Amino acid sequence: MSVKTMQTQEVKELLEKVAGLNQAAGNDRIKTIVHRVMHDVFQIIEDLDITPEEFWSAVYYINDLGKNGEAALLAPGLGMDKYLDIRMDAEDAQAGLAGGTPRTIEGPLYVAGAPLCDGFARMDDGTQAGDIMLLTGVVTDEQGNPLAGATVDVWHADLKGAYSYFDQSQSEYNLRRRIKTDALGRYVAQSIIPSGYGCPPEGSTQALLNQLGRHGQRPAHIHFFISAPGHKHLTTQINLAGDEYTYDDFAFATRDELVVDARPVARSAAGERHGVTGPVTEVEFNIKLVSTDSKDQQEMHKRQRALA
Ligand code: MBD
Ligand code: FE
């Protein structure tokens, strides 16, 4: 069967009514979007000759996806977060705001309101005996001038690849801290080297990835929001070098400039300034922010985020 009905007056009128285009009430922007989305869905059904069985399996897939709370997990898996980044990079270039440390996706596992510390934070609650991570760096402007009082909001997974709050077995705000940079723009954190993340094996996201012949793994990584007055807000992550998935991230967050070595050292100067003595695994991530007067650019974009 390969019937063509999209060009008929009946379908055209149906789409207009579906999107409320013949109604005065409602929101014009939403109408425009829904009209386009439903048009394109109908067009896909026609072009790919989608069967009723395929259609209904998609409908109930979305039901399960929502029940499992995985919509914001499937999104990066399908490259949507990465695509928004590609657009924001292009917008920045157009506005003359390119440069600095590159952005990469936020992911679905941020929790607002982590403890705020001055210069140094101990991030782990001491319950997991992982490799001690000494995470350190300097926040500067594009000219390399240190930015004192910048906020470095850091979050990462535990040894199971799980995040506190979403993993109720962890203590509140475990592996989540906000650190204010010191007078020299430096931040230091003591934590544990995170493990990579894997999508829930029985979840909806992994079910679709299986159909695509794809895995649902992320390399060991550490998330950052960095902000300072007069500078563009930065959402980014580092991926640890040497992980099987460093360059094969199901969420497409890897960028060459954001791959960082985890180096075992006998002692860390940055750590010793804060009483962390002995061997640690040092992870250094220096951050360059782009200056801007735009208050809008200085803040992270709005999206639904958890608050513990
Ligand atoms: C993560 O930890 C993550 O960062 C992303 C983008 C998706 C799933 C889990
Ligand atoms: Fe993550």
Give a brief description.
GO terms for molecular function: catechol 1,2-dioxygenase activity; ferric iron binding. With 308 residues, the chain is of the alpha/beta class.
Uncertain runs: none
Largest sheet: 6 strands, mixed
Order of helices and strands: HHHHHEEEEEEEEHEEEEEHEEHE
The portion of residues assigned to helices is: 25-40%
Please tell me the overall pLDDT: 97
CATH architecture of the largest domain: Sandwich
Note the gap between the termini.
53 Å
Broad structural category = alpha/beta
How many domains make up the 3D coordinates?
A: 2
- CATH fold naming of the largest domain: Protocatechuate 3,4-Dioxygenase, subunit A
Supply the CATH class of the largest domain.
Answer: Mainly Beta
Largest beta sheet: what is the strand line-up? 2-6-5-10-11-12
Proportion of residues in β-strands: 15-25%
What are the distinct ligands in this entry? 3-methylcatechol, fe (iii) ion
Silhouette: globular
Q: How many beta-strand elements? A: 16
Contiguous helical run count: 8
CATH superfamily of the largest domain: Aromatic compound dioxygenase
Radius of gyration, taken over Cα atoms and rounded to an integer in Å: 23 Å
